[in-house]
């Protein structure tokens, strides 16, 4: 009973955390529909359908010539090179669909297990001992008056990095903030796609895909991990702190399977709407929960909705985090599949595959690699990734090189974490000096390196009575469906 209660509380929060997404995705859908690649993808050789059409699930994908969307009829023509023989039929990847994950989040790693693929990586903490009571409320911006956040604020102030003195935006995006949107010195990605030289928005090498999944870990992440493992693919997971405390075993599973773990804030807000202190709280707690689960602190982060400006960038940099978004090659071609909105009924799975076709069409024409926005939060997003998008990408000729962002940038995996970062090849994680170190250690004294050795769990040893609560969170995937 206790297990079911925890799961029932956690799930609605996933949806409410994304309630502001409509505006963002209205733009994304329109962008994809008018993408320059639409013409070329619709003219793709029909022969590519033949091989896939004999496979279960592929016929519906290949035959998706017309798929009326929620906002009106949209003519879709696309082909897939290949689909997964066990793909869920597209007609069943819809809003409200629900079934049991085929791979439960059952893998737990003993405290002290050490990842051998990262030189000098610290041992895994005991995830079962995490005490949720020691962390902020799920899916809300954490209290900025807490001692931890106050310490992180001091560290940012002492970092030597200048935080631009510009006001937060108000909710409502570009239309609600005409002055900010027009202010090029703010470099607000949301309104016009402005990027800073430090932003990671693509992979350098042509035909290279920096594979990313956002908003997890969640119920169906295990299914995605199993597919990635079977296909020998590694990805970057942008982790929401509120999900990490709910599914620590899955986060460990991602990390131990050699995927890159990165920060995606605590509660998934539009970061430009927050005060400096709130931004620090969002990033600081996300770094802390990841370190408490994995023993390492990410050096990369992704702003939810790509909502970043120079103020948010500077704070993230002062906290040792490299801003990473996704590829946008023109005002009408952003590499967002739109997969997040299937669950909410705002887009059909056929439209997502049409977006994917546009993306892949553009990806073959640009002279650099690319990064695509996808999610592991919902069953629908995982089903469409494992059933259609990834098999299609893997069958593409010429082949794509598919790898985590850190790898596509030509850096070793140890550069993805403050505790193992090679200073010489990845200065971003250490260049901010004391701020990065202090925030990495979650307020503990000592350098980032020593914090990694000591482990941050000492302050978070859970009383035995709360061990059951932690176990319930870890076991949530199975419990929900029992
Ligand atoms: Zn997100």
TrEMBL record:
The name this protein goes by in its record: chitin deacetylase
Enzyme Commission number(s) from the entry: 3.5.1.41
Gene source species: Dichomitus squalens
One GO process term, biological-process aspect: chitin catabolic process
Domain NodB homology: 207-401
Disordered, as annotated region: 419-444
Matches recorded under InterPro entries: Glyco_hydro/deAcase_b/a-brl, NODB_dom, Polysacc_deacetylase_ArnD
Taxonomic lineage of the native organism: Eukaryota, Fungi, Dikarya, Basidiomycota, Agaricomycotina
Main EC class the enzyme belongs to: hydrolase
Cofactor requirements of the protein: Co(2+)
One MF term in the entry's GO annotations: metal ion binding
Places the protein is found: Cell membrane; Secreted, Cell wall
Compositional bias ranges of the Polar residues kind: 420-429
Keywords: Carbohydrate metabolism, Cell membrane, Cell wall, Cell wall biogenesis/degradation, Chitin degradation, Cobalt, Glycoprotein, GPI-anchor, Hydrolase, Lipoprotein, Membrane, Metal-binding, Polysaccharide degradation, Secreted, Signal
